Amino acid sequence: xxxxxxxxxxxxxxxxxxxxxxxxxxxxxxxxxxxxxxxxxxxxxxxxxxxxxxxxxxxxxxxxxxxxxxxxxxxxxxxxxxxxxxxxxxxxxxxxxxxxxxxxxxxxxxxxxxxxxxxxxxxxxxxxxxxxxxxxxxxxxxxxxxxxxxxxxxxxxxxxxxxxxxxxxxxxxxxxxxxxxxxxxxxxxxxxxxxxxxxxxxxxxxxxxxxxxxxxxxxxxxxxxxxxxxxxxxxxxxxxxxxxxxxxxxxxxxxxxxxxxxxxxxxxxxxxxxxxxxxxxxxxxxxxxxxxxxxxxxxxxxxxxxxxxxxxxxxxxxxxxxxxxxxxxxxxxxxxxxxxxxxxxxxxxxxxxxxxxxxxxxxxxxxxxxxxxxxxxxxxxxxxxxxxxxxxxxxxxxxxxxxxxxxxxxx
Length: 411
Ligand code: PMP
Prior knowledge:
41% of the residues lie in helices and 17% in strands. It is of the alpha/beta class and 411 residues long. Helix 9 links the parallel strand 8 (201-205) and strand 9. The chain starts with a helix and ends with a helix. The relative contact order is 0.17. The model has no long low-confidence stretch (mean pLDDT 96). The chain binds 4'-deoxy-4'-aminopyridoxal-5'-phosphate. 4'-deoxy-4'-aminopyridoxal-5'-phosphate is lined by residues 98-100, 128, 130-131, 176, 180, 205, 207-208, 228, 369.
């Protein structure tokens, strides 16, 4: 990443775009280090949602009146912005509530009708529950088996071992682009190439990649890519599944209702074309208007710049945390996003996070929806500090000072 480019941006001004970051918690300035959980929103996103409800609110696709047309244009405009942002076709993006919806759509609509006893699904040790449980539901119903690719001591995928798992009965490989616990960036392009050579369909969970790096879905070469809007400075309850057109055409609808049909008769229903075939009911219109504004915001900032800034913060945080006695960092991948999971000897993760909150520092503690990864490390929980481009080096320092202080209280 190019440090010189990072320096050309006035990060103090960027930070000022985020109104929430000026608040206090327990009488202390807030230090928000939980962006991997959900990202904060710039004023432009908040304003876009506000403006939609104040001036344009109407349902999409049904009404011919002016507001209905404006709402439809804004909603479809967000789809087009997302398509440009991720370098895909707009008609290959199914809009929904987030990654959890997107992965379940693949599980129920692509995998469930296809998999059979004797087939296998390959996952990795570092998956979020959203990329495990849907496949377990499919496996239970179809008789397919789940195989798991393991990680090394640095928290990186053992790709040779993963490739060895890709035997002829494997029909689907689903893995995260970036781990929400370890920060590990997986070599998804190489992995998808190997899977494709073997005729295996690939699903990438992009929840933690989309907010931190420039993601060109087409160049990854996967079959499905899921992402969630609220981690990319957008509103909650927004996200999408990108899928190759041939998959979308072949997949049956997952949820039935209005908007996803061409004609309904009691004798039988003709479904709409993809992606609308998968978008039954009234969508989160205002949310997608906000997500469109967040894509505008991130595009203007430049994902390369955001990523470079976060790498600086990660490097600084890792250096400082490594000086704290008895602190263990989980995940030291060579290519890593700005997420640091850690434990401090003698202190429970929740106690540390609770005391840090009293210092104004918001970090996450728990299993991070990754029980199998916790089992691997033999711990019930970790603390996780996750950084975004709007954080500062001063915040990193204040966090480490607070950590040393609360640690003493727990000793
Ligand atoms: N996968 C990963 C790697 C995640 O970090 C998350 C969110 N914590 C999800 C999936 C689920 O995303 P959502 O809850 O927005 O559907």
